[in-house]
Design brief:
Helices cover about 35% and strands about 15% of the residues. It is of the alpha/beta class and about 400 residues long. It has a domain of about 130 residues: Peroxisomal Thiolase, Chain A, domain 1 (3-Layer(aba) Sandwich), CATH 3.40.47. The strands form 3 sheets. The protein has a 5-stranded mixed sheet with strand order 1-7-4-2-3, with helices on both faces.
Length: about 400
């Protein structure tokens, strides 16, 4: 009998090595992440009956039908559920609401979400910065990228506008990179943690990429994988880990062409996503103990803080400058290092969610935020065109 309206939780997580995985293939890294998340939960890979998002990389019909690729070919049984969100680099983490839906509705019992980037391919999966930039340039505004815009120049425009309207400074943006590097130093899998802590001067003295964004204001370019497993709360109570539940979720979709956005400094669609998630969860901003906010560039975090209501519009820079985002601050944010210092591989938002799960479980070791019971997650697609927010709590 199918059980409906049952609570669903994240029961397993796993991160693979992050960095240069050009000597491996995507499918191998994908399965490593999935097997690791199942083992973390105390489940078998054969227990999986639902997939949300990407499958092991394939060609032809295998690429077009990711759900079928996990059926008899690999699991020896039909898959009961497949779906996918489309919020750019935030898609994997945004997919959690579809996994929760599948389990809650009785459409699947064990749903996996995974992302992996590996091999010598070009584009997003490459560890070559020129290849990655060339691919991402085509994701700029459809009427602008032909003139040479890139994703970093898109965000540089947003940063410059925010500075113009609100007086935000490059030093305030630099503090975001500094705060997040501390968490990366304490995470054994981070890409840049081994390089040590940063100072504001380090960021300011790094070469300019697109004014006002310096090199250390920009995300890493690397490879890696990760996965989560969602199952029912009843089942999770008999498994290995403390369950983490999604309490609220929201989305906001705004525009394609940046010229169509009413403002380049404030983003109502991002606010809509956050407001929806907080209303559904029934908690206040002041209740949040730890946050994961998309940080493809440092300005992302400023926009994310303001859109979520953690500070007033125009005060994101000063909020960061106060030290609030540090591990010991009032709102520890991207505590593993984020995309700036931990990893920016594949649908990297999943890594941000995995870190929140670690924090809410109380298993983040030296990075642990004491008393972390509620976490806030947000992600963006493109340059603030698509947005999602979610609230998580430990059970």
């Amino acid at each position: 009998m199918i059980q409906r309206n049952r609570p669903a939780v994240i029961a397993g997580i796993h991160l693979t090595e992050q960095g240069d995985l050009s000597d491996r293939v995507q499918s191998d890294v994908w399965w490593e992440a999935v097997a690791g998340a199942c083992a973390d939960a105390g489940l078998e890979v054969g227990d999986i009956d639902g997939l949300v998002g990407e499958a092991p990389e394939g060609a032809g019909i295998r690429a077009a039908l990711p759900g079928a690729s996990l059926g008899y070919d690999t699991l020896g049984k039909p898959l009961r559920f497949h779906a996918s969100a489309a919020i750019g680099a935030a898609s994997a983490a945004a997919n959690v609401h579809l996994a929760v839906y599948a389990v809650s509705a009785g459409l699947a019992d064990v749903v996996v979400i995974a992302t992996a980037a590996a091999g010598k391919g070009n584009g997003f999966a490459s560890v070559n910065r020129d290849d990655a930039v060339k691919t991402m340039a085509k994701l700029s505004g459809p009427y602008e990228y032909v003139y040479g815009t890139t994703r970093v120049s898109d965000y540089a425009v947003l940063a410059m506008r925010h500075m113009h309207e609100f007086g935000t400074t490059p030093e305030q943006l630099a503090e975001i990179a500094v705060a997040q590097r501390r968490g990366a130093v304490l995470h054994p899998l981070s890409v840049y943690g081994k390089r040590g802590d940063l100072t504001v001067d380090d960021v300011m003295n790094s070469r300019m990429i697109a004014d006002p964004l310096h090199l250390l204001d920009c995300c890493a370019i690397n490879q890696g994988g990760g996965a989560i497993v969602v199952t029912s709360l009843d089942r999770a109570r008999d498994l290995k880990q403390i369950p983490v539940q999604m309490m609220g979720y929201g989305e906001g979709h705004s525009h394609i062409d940046p010229n169509a956005s009413p403002s380049l400094a404030t983003f109502p669609a991002a606010k809509l996503a956050a407001d929806t998630a907080f209303k559904m969860a029934g908690v206040e901003r002041s209740d949040i103990d730890v946050a994961g906010i998309a940080d493809h560039f440092t300005i992302n975090v400023v926009l994310g803080l303001e859109s979520a209501g953690f500070c007033a519009v125009g005060e994101g820079g000063s909020f960061a400058e106060s030290g609030a985002l540090r591990l010991e601050g009032s709102l520890p944010t991207n505590t593993a290092g984020g995309f700036l210092s931990f990893s920016h591989a594949g649908s990297c938002s999943l890594f941000t969610l995995i870190e929140l799960v670690e924090q809410l479980r109380g298993s983040a070791e030296e990075r642990q935020v004491q008393g972390a019971d509620l976490g806030y997650l947000s992600g963006v697609g493109g340059a603030m065109q698509n947005n999602f927010s979610a609230i998580f709590g430990r059970l």
